[in-house]
Design brief:
It is built from 35 helices and no strands. By secondary structure, it is mostly helical. GO terms for molecular function: 7S RNA binding; ribosome binding. InterPro entries: Signal_recog_part_SRP72_RNA-bd, SRP72, SRP72_TPR-like, TPR-like_helical_dom_sf, TPR_rpt. It is found in: Cytoplasm; Endoplasmic reticulum.
Length: about 675
């Protein structure tokens, strides 16, 4: 009876706890609901329903790790069929995406909740084709209040395909009724390069969001700023792509000042600012790069975004002369993506900054041998390095080894220019010949034996002929010119070149060909010479003829061919010119550049002051005595000695001399007073 009574009491207590837990759960108070569930588990520790409720309460409280621990601890009771969604969701929120995918795929029954989560997992794994199919299936087979969210996710998948995989998005027929759909549509347009249309979509998304705020309640200022920051960040990116870097930089800095909580957004904006700064404003870039290292960034961005950030970190380390850091980052990137070009190019650039050009070329050559698909771009870089070293011939050899570019007009032009610079005309002509032969073989294979010439082919033949004529290879140019004339017999310019070439080789042939030239009558142009000379742009205008008098007519007849001679003015000679003395042949040179210049004699007077023992007087002391000068009567200089006095004496000339008396003595007294104050008398 006692056992029965205790069991009945336990059942009653459990029922009360269940009702309390249910009430708290409906009110959203999952912390109190969890307490009730824990008490129930104390009564019945293997209760499946109680364990499920505990996992749900922990998930609602954000304790995903603890919830996953409960599931893994009670695997016998909580089988995959019972709690597959909760387990997969915990793994998804803990960024264990691969584990979440396995949990979903191992579930025996694929519920709608699992399908929704499956789509999210595929998006995070960047399996966009499978994700698109999953969301299409969900939209087709479900009708509930979450249809708008599914369409938003579907448009996000299309935008990601357009941006990261460069896939032309198909028209899904989605009505852009929300700002999220407008934003995703703008991202898809950016991936297609339609920047102006994308900007209009973003402006529309911003207007939709501001209009939706009227109907939203309990929206904080931080939420509004966070949503607008995402839209404004994409606007700034479009400005950057359009070359409006100043506007983009201003908008980026405004977003950073708002301090949004989205670490992914901050990392992308900081990276874009670093790309604008390049090798300038390095101090600002070093500050911004810290935002890309925030916790959780790797889970917010795609693989290509993270890779771009790491590339820019390596470049920033190179620009800031952190050679070891640059090598470390680029080596890490190369291990992650062995076929990618940028890590190797960054390493080569760092070696070049350290003046190790040969080592850089060797590194690039090894990569080209290991990855033939990327050999063309690598070899172009190698050629550039060789040119920088002055090895133009070696650079030409590297360029000619790129088979897929040998026939391109740009490559032909570059090689011919470089060989001409090295005065290797034979090699330049060989480049032309190989390119022309390639086009002949290609067109023969395309036209099945017919021999029409493409515009590029004809252009190459003409350039080859002009090059040969320019360098005196007229015999070699004849075949090219004949080929051109054969293609277009009405081309007078080519015919004239051909006749000019034959005139030195075979004059008879030149005479025969000259018969094909058009006559002078057909070549003449009807031009009004008077109208042309009197036109606004004419450099020479004929003077209108006026009536001439009899005298003028005689002058015109007699002196028409004689030009007036201008009289040359005699050059002026200097005032002190002496014809008996030969002029200085170096008189046109500056004084410092003349052979007899010995420099200025400095410190003549300084050398005379302060020499000898203290208190001794020198021979010129009487001349330096101001009192004697002031008291002595002024004397007029002799007419013949004025120049000598002004050069050798310190006496002031009479017309500039101050009157002797009060001012001089007053100044002397002031000097004595100052000396007394300084010495402490």
């Amino acid at each position: 009876k006692m056992a029965a009574a205790s069991a009945a009491g336990g059942a009653g207590a459990a029922a009360a706890l269940w009702s309390e837990g249910n009430r708290c759960g409906q009110n959203g108070d999952f912390a109190r609901a969890l307490k009730s569930v824990n008490k129930i588990l104390q009564i019945s520790k293997d209760d499946v329903t109680a364990l499920q409720c505990k996992v749900v309460c922990l998930i609602q409280n954000g304790n995903f790790k603890e919830a996953l621990g409960v599931i893994n601890t009670h695997t016998k009771v909580l089988t995959s069929d019972v709690i597959a969604f909760e387990k997969a969701y915990c793994e998804y929120r803990l960024n264990r995406i691969e584990n979440a995918l396995k949990t979903i795929q191992s579930a025996s029954q694929q519920t709608d909740k699992l399908k929704e989560l499956y789509g999210q997992v595929l998006y995070r794994l960047e399996r966009y084709d499978d994700c698109l199919a999953a969301y299409r299936d969900l939209i087709r087979n479900s009708q509930d209040e979450y249809e708008e969210e599914r369409k938003t996710n579907l448009s996000a998948v299309v935008a990601a395909q357009s941006t990261w995989e460069k896939v032309m998005p198909e028209d899904l027929g989605l009505r852009e009724a929300t700002y999220e759909l407008c934003y995703n549509s703008a991202c898809a347009l950016i991936g297609q390069g339609k920047l102006n249309e994308a900007m209009k979509k973003l402006q529309k998304a911003e207007a939709f969001f501001l209009f939706a705020l009227i109907f939203l309640q309990d929206v904080t200022e931080e939420d509004i700023e966070a949503e607008l920051a995402i839209i404004h960040g994409q606007m700034a990116y479009i400005m950057q792509l359009q070359g409006r870097t100043e506007d983009a930089l201003q908008l980026y800095n405004q977003i950073i000042k708002l301090k949004p909580t989205d670490v992914g957004l901050l990392a992308v904006i900081a990276n874009n600012i670093i790309t604008i700064n390049k090798d300038q404003n390095v101090f600002d870039s070093k500050k911004k790069v810290k935002l890309t290292n925030a916790e959780g960034v790797e889970h917010k961005l795609s693989k290509k975004q993270l890779q771009a950030i790491e590339f820019n970190k390596a470049l920033l380390a190179m620009y800031t002369n952190q050679a070891d850091q640059c090598r470390k980052l680029s080596a890490s990137l190369q291990s992650q993506s062995p076929e990618h070009l940028l890590p190797v190019l960054i390493q080569a650039a760092q070696l070049c900054r350290e003046k190790q050009h040969a080592k850089a070329v060797g590194l690039l050559q090894d990569f080209a041998d290991q990855h033939p698909a990327n050999a063309a771009e690598i070899k172009l870089t190698m050629a550039q390095l060789k040119i920088a070293q002055g090895s133009v011939t070696k650079a030409c050899m590297i360029l000619r080894s790129i088979e897929e570019l040998q026939h391109k007009p740009g490559m032909v032009s570059a090689l011919v220019t470089m060989y001409s610079h090295e005065e290797d005309i034979d090699s330049a002509i060989e480049v032309f010949t190989q390119a022309i032969q390639w086009y002949q073989q290609f067109q023969a294979s395309q036209t099945r034996g017919a021999n029409p010439k493409s515009p590029v082919h004809l252009s190459l033949i003409r350039e080859a002929a002009n090059f040969k004529l320019k360098h005196g290879r007229k015999k070699e140019a004849i075949s090219d010119l004949e080929e051109l004339w054969k293609q277009n017999p009405k081309d007078v310019h080519t015919l004239a070149q051909l006749i000019s070439a034959y005139s030195l080789v075979d004059p008879e042939k030149a005479k025969v060909l000259s018969k094909h030239l058009p006559s002078s009558d057909t070549m003449s142009l009807k031009v009004d010479v008077d109208a042309l000379e009197n036109s606004h742009g004419a450099t020479y205008v004929r003077k209108k003829a006026g009536k001439l008098t009899g005298d003028n007519q005689q002058k015109e007849q007699g002196q028409g061919d004689v030009k007036k001679k201008k009289k040359k003015k005699k050059g002026k000679l200097p005032k002190n010119y002496d014809p008996k003395v030969t002029p200085d042949p170096e008189r046109w040179l500056p004084m410092r550049e003349r052979s007899y210049y010995r420099g200025r004699k400095k410190g003549k007077k300084k050398d005379q002051v302060g020499k000898g023992t203290q208190g001794s007087t020198t021979a010129g002391s009487s001349e330096l005595d101001a009192s004697r000068t002031a008291s002595s009567p002024p004397t007029s200089p002799r007419p013949g000695s004025a120049a000598a006095v002004s050069a050798t004496s310190n006496v002031i000339p009479p017309r500039h001399q101050k009157p002797a008396g009060a001012p001089a003595t007053k100044k002397k007294q002031q000097q004595k007073k100052k000396k007394g104050a300084k010495g402490g008398w």
